[in-house]
Design goal:
Distance between the termini: 21 Å
Shape: globular
Oligomer: single chain
Helix content: 10-25%
CATH architecture: Sandwich
CATH topology: Immunoglobulin-like
CATH superfamily: Invasion associated locus B (IalB) protein
Radius of gyration: 14 Å
Strand content: 35-45%
Number of domains: 1
Number of strands: 10
Length: 155
C-alpha cells in the first residue's frame, strides 16, 4: 500500500467523518468527495452511542480507481490475528498497521472480487479477537448505499 494511501487513512482518523450508530436499520453509506478523493465511513457504537466498537472507512483517489478499506477497533484487540470483513461468502483479511489513542487500524485494498461481494452483501460483518481473552467478536454493519459509494469511488 502506498505511503500516500496510508496518509489518507490517517487523515480520516484524525479528522473523522460523522459516525452512524448501527442500531438504526436505515443507516446508509454515502460518499464524501473532494477534488480527487472520496471517503465513506460507517461505525458501530455501543447501544448508548457513547463508544465506537468498530468503524470501516473506504477511501479512493478517483484517478487510480482503487478502493482501500480501513477497519478501526478499540485498543485491546489481538493485533497478530488482524481483522476481517465478511461480505456474503467472501472474507477480506486486514493486517493491523497502526495503533493510536483512538484505536488500532487495519488496512487493505479491495480486490474486484471483494468489491463485488461488498456490493451484493446484505450486511458486512467485522470480525476481531480480544487480546485479554482471545474471544472472537463480530459486529454487523448495514450495506444500504454501499453499491453507490463503490460505484462513485471507481468511476
Amino acid at each position: 500500500m502506498s505511503s500516500f494511501r496510508v496518509f489518507l487513512y490517517s487523515l480520516a482518523l484524525v479528522f473523522p467523518l460523522g459516525t452512524t450508530a448501527v442500531a438504526a436499520q436505515e443507516s446508509t453509506w454515502f460518499p464524501q468527495c473532494v477534488t480527487d478523493r472520496c471517503v465513506s465511513q460507517m461505525a458501530a457504537t455501543e447501544a448508548d452511542g457513547e463508544r465506537a466498537i468498530a468503524s470501516v472507512t473506504l477511501t479512493s483517489l478517483t484517478s487510480d480507481k482503487v478502493v482501500g478499506v480501513a477497519v478501526t477497533l478499540p485498543l485491546g484487540v489481538a493485533l497478530e490475528a488482524g481483522a476481517q470483513i465478511v461480505a456474503g461468502d467472501k472474507t477480506l483479511s486486514l493486517p493491523f498497521k497502526v495503533c493510536l489513542p483512538a484505536g488500532c487500524t487495519a488496512f487493505a485494498d479491495l480486490t474486484d472480487e471483494m468489491k463485488s461481494a461488498f456490493e451484493s452483501a446484505s450486511s458486512l460483518q467485522v470480525r476481531f479477537f480480544g487480546q485479554s481473552d482471545m474471544a472472537a467478536n463480530a459486529v454487523e454493519l448495514p450495506t444500504a448505499g454501499l453499491p453507490d459509494v463503490l460505484k462513485r469511488m471507481t468511476e
